């Protein structure tokens, strides 16, 4: 049995999902975060069900690939029940989706979420009246505090076998209704079996929905265009627009009949926006927030690193105390412990605060503001503000960033945004920057690398936009109000990304460290290093670092730990010069995305484009590495 | 208010409540030819300058 959570972006779907699914979905306070369908098996009073969190959709007529994915799921996946999550503070707009969903004929429960927010805005809603008018059960919830969630799922269980009943207030204008009926009769008369309700199909055909029109037979298509013309003649504007405003009027009618407006309480968040999106202060705050974020991550990270590293070193010494040096056991235990130490002592301390900070910025709703601030700038490189969202997500992990490009309507914008998003240092690469450059050369150097990277991303954007010119359609992006994210949701999100490191990268890291340790014992690494000698030579790095670069393709953070292993010391500064540290970091930051990202890229932009992107990043990384090698000694004097 | 834009953009705007006949309040504009932030019945929408040019409005005080 499948239960789908459906709602408009930012209505709090994912929060509700998280509160029953046990932290298994990613959430974000901007349109289109859940582009990957998160699902979880849940037990509802003894009944087993698959709860699916669909991407936010504004209506059942999709305008971008993320919305198309959501609709496809609803139409073709045998959904037993829809839980329509509605932002109570935006009730009239949200009801338009509810009306659309009703036509699918799937059992449905309306979840009136964010009741506290509605109250603050002076909107008093009678859920009982709304339920009567819609002829659907309505449950009030405050998802962020878990209020009403239990009742919601109890009601859901009760409704599973009850398709929506017709409701009088949800009627269309007389002549539109007649057109819909006629279209419906036409479809019903058609002998080919329809899996979808004919009324839903009829409405979508009159709305000139691309996909549905394409799949309809020629006769149905002709009939639809005839009826559309008729509507256009009577109303003086396209049928699509007439139907849309009909639905809007209907939603307004429902709203007026079930809600009363009182004076809203003053909202301090408006004052906050006066500063954060100000023409001048907005940019100053943006810079301050980024630098502050950076300092905080580095400060907390190095504090934890110092605390953990000593203890782990002691543990290793204890374990190795009784094993004779030079024996096979010694190499095995020592390299295994190196892997464990690399994960716990070097990577986790930076990764956790970084992911936490990024999740906070995402959920609080700051990212759409960044998109707003930077749209003008991005237009110069042929992109628009919405493309900024996947690129910022790229700082967390390139894989969800590639998937998030689906919120962009144009194929070319998706290509550009996904390539640029993979160039941005993800949390693994940031860890390398923090633990290597910031730790040994000072945080200002690390900040310099981040700025340099941003510059290269901008220049790459300019270059790619020139290769594939297209006039960008322009941004249309809802800027949601600020929300204080629940700690529970943030923790869930951090865990979701951290889990990947703990169950996937860390074991790989320990295995890799073992392979390197044993390889060194039998001199295997020499062959690999010899093969990569041209590259290390060009970059001016010790040839023993050749293998570490290979590990970096598997997972970027592996390169860091392998670096310490290959050099045979954790105090990198004794062996590498400052220039070499920077060159290594710059190369790691730019060159070929890790395996997981390559897979995601192939899915989003195709094999050929991915190969091109990988080649581009490799050339770019080599060039940047060489440039750093030549230029830095002037500043460093070494 | 009139909107002269492609079907997809018109739909996108309409979904956010921006459709012929509604009242919009321009909250602020971003520098460097950046977007316009409009308030439409309590919903804030950032519209790129190029797109905003295609939304014809009648000014009321």
Write the topology of this structure:
The complex is a heterodimer of chains A (638) and B (61).
Chain A: E1 2-7, H1 13-21, E2 38-44, E3 47-53, H2 65-76, E4 81-87, H3 91-102, E5 108-113, H4 115-120, E6 123-125, H5 127-134, E7 138-140, H6 149-159, H7 174-189, H8 198-206, H9 210-215, H10 218-235, H11 239-258, E8 259-261, H12 268-276, H13 281-320, H14 328-364, H15 367-380, H16 388-393, H17 398-404, H18 411-423, H19 427-441, H20 443-467, E9 476-478, H21 487-521, H22 525-531, H23 533-539, H24 546-554, H25 556-567, H26 578-590, H27 595-605, H28 607-636
Chain B: E1 2-3, H1 7-15, E2 25-29, E3 36-40, E4 43-47, H2 49-52, E5 55-56
Antiparallel strand pairs in B: 1-5, 2-3, 3-4
Could you walk me through the main structural features you see in this protein, from its secondary elements to its overall organization?
The complex is a heterodimer of chains A (638) and B (61). In chain A, helix 3 links the parallel strand 4 and strand 5. Chain A has a six-stranded mixed sheet, sandwiched between helices. Chain A folds into three domains: 2-159, Rossmann fold; 174-261, Orthogonal Bundle (Helix Hairpins), CATH 1.10.287; 281-636, no CATH class. The model of chain A is unreliable at 25-35 (pLDDT under 50). Chain A is built from 28 helices and nine strands. Chain A is an alpha/beta fold and 638 residues long. Chain A is elongated. Chain A is 65% helix and 7% strand. Chain B has 61 residues and is α+β, with helices and mostly antiparallel strands. Chain B is 21% helix and 31% strand. Chain B is built from two helices and five strands, in the order βαβββαβ. Chain B has helices at residues 7-15, 49-52, and strands at 2-3, 25-29, 36-40, 43-47, 55-56. In chain B, the strands form two sheets. Chain B has a three-stranded antiparallel sheet with strand order 2-3-4. In chain B, strands 1-5 form a two-stranded antiparallel sheet. The model of chain B has no long low-confidence stretch (mean pLDDT 79). Classes of the chains: A alpha/beta (638), B alpha+beta (61). The interface between A and B is large, with 45 and 35 residues.
């Amino acid at each position: 049995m499948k239960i789908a959570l459906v709602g408009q972006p930012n209505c709090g779907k994912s929060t509700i999902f998280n509160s029953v699914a046990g932290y298994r979905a990613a959430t974000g306070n901007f349109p289109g975060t859940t582009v990957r369908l998160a699902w979880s098996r849940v037990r509802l009073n003894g009944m087993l069900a698959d709860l699916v969190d669909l991407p936010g959709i504004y209506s059942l007529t999709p305008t971008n690939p993320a919305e198309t994915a959501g609709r496809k799921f609803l139409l073709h996946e045998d959904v037993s029940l829809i839980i329509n999550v509605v932002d109570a503070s935006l009730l009239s707009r949200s009801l338009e989706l509810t009306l659309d969903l009703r036509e699918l004929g799937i059992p449905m429960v309306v979840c009136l979420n964010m009741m506290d927010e509605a109250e603050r805005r002076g909107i008093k809603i009678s859920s009982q009246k709304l339920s009567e008018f819609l002829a659907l059960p309505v449950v009030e919830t405050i998802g962020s505090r878990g209020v009403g969630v239990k009742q919601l799922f109890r009601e859901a269980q009760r409704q599973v076998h009850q398709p929506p009943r017709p409701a009088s207030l949800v009627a269309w204008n007389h002549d539109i209704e007649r057109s819909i009926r006629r279209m419906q009769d036409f479809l019903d008369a058609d002998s080919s079996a329809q899996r979808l309700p004919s009324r839903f199909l009829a409405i979508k055909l009159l709305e000139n929905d691309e996909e549905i029109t394409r799949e309809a037979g020629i006769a149905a298509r002709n009939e639809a265009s005839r009826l559309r013309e008729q509507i256009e003649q009577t109303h003086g504007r396209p049928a699509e627009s007439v139907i849309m405003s009909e639905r809007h009027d209907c939603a307004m009618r429902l709203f007026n009949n079930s809600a009363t407006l009182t004076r809203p309480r003053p909202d301090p968040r408006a004052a906050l926006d006066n500063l954060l999106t100000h023409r001048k202060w907005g940019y100053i705050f943006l810079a301050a927030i980024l630098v502050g974020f950076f300092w905080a991550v580095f400060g907390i990270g190095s504090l934890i690193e110092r605390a953990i590293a000593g203890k782990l070193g002691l543990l290793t010494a204890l374990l190795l105390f009784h094993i004779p040096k030079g024996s096979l056991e010694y190499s095995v235990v020592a390299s295994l412990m190196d892997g464990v130490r690399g994960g716990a002592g070097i990577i986790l301390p930076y990764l956790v605060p970084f992911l936490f900070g990024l999740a906070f910025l995402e959920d609080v709703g700051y990212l759409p503001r960044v998109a707003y601030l930077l749209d003008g700038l991005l237009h110069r490189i042929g992109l628009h503000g919405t493309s900024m969202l996947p690129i910022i997500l790229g700082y967390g992990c390139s894989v969800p960033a590639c998937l998030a490009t689906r919120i962009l309507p144009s194929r070319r914008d998706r290509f550009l945004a996904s390539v640029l998003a993979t160039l941005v240092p993800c949390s693994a690469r940031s860890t390398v920057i923090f633990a290597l450059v910031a730790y040994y050369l000072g945080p200002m150097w690390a900040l310099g690398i981040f700025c340099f990277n941003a510059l290269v991303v901008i220049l790459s954007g300019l270059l790619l936009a020139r290769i594939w010119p297209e006039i960008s359609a322009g941004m249309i992006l809802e800027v949601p109000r600020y929300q204080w994210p629940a700690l529970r949701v943030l923790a869930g999100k951090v865990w979701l990304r951290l889990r990947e490191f703990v169950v996937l990268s860390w074991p790989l890291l320990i295995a890799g460290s073992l392979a390197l340790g044993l390889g060194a014992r039998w001199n295997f690494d020499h062959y690999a290093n010899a093969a990569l000698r041209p590259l290390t030579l060009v970059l001016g790095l010790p040839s023993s670092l050749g293998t570490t670069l290979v590990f970096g393709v598997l997972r970027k953070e592996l390169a860091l730990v392998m670096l310490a292993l290959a050099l045979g010391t954790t105090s990198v500064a004794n062996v590498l010069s400052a220039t070499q540290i920077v060159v290594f970091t710059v190369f790691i930051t730019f060159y070929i995305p890790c395996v997981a990202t390559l897979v995601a890229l192939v899915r989003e932009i195709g094999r050929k484009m991915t190969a091109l992107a990988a080649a581009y990043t490799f050339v770019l990384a080599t060039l940047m590495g060489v440039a750093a090698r030549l230029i830095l000694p002037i500043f460093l004097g070494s | 208010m009139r909107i002269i834009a492609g079907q997809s953009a018109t739909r996108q705007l309409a979904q956010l409540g921006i459709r012929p006949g509604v009242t919009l309040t321009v909250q602020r504009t971003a520098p460097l030819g950046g977007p316009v932030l409009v308030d439409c019945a309590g919903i804030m929408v950032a519209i790129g300058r190029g797109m905003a040019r295609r939304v014809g409005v009648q000014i009321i005080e």
